[in-house]
Amino acid sequence: MAPAMAADVCANITGTVWKIEVQEGDAVEAGQTVVVLESMKMELPIEAERGGKVTRIHVAEGQAVEQGARLLTLG
Question: What is the pTM of this model?
Fold first, then answer.
């Protein structure tokens, strides 16, 4: 079987990383909340579009991010 291609999970809104729900090495399922962003006093969960293993986290809690910013990579 061919290895799964890496996929980035990106911010769908400009905001602040409020909470990172996973760690590098964690296995995640499609639809699982991986990061929570805060924007305009609202908490917005960001979900993995597909399952995989978290290979890299690109942000830190409290960090401001723009829409489209890479949050983490799934392998």
Answer: 0.91
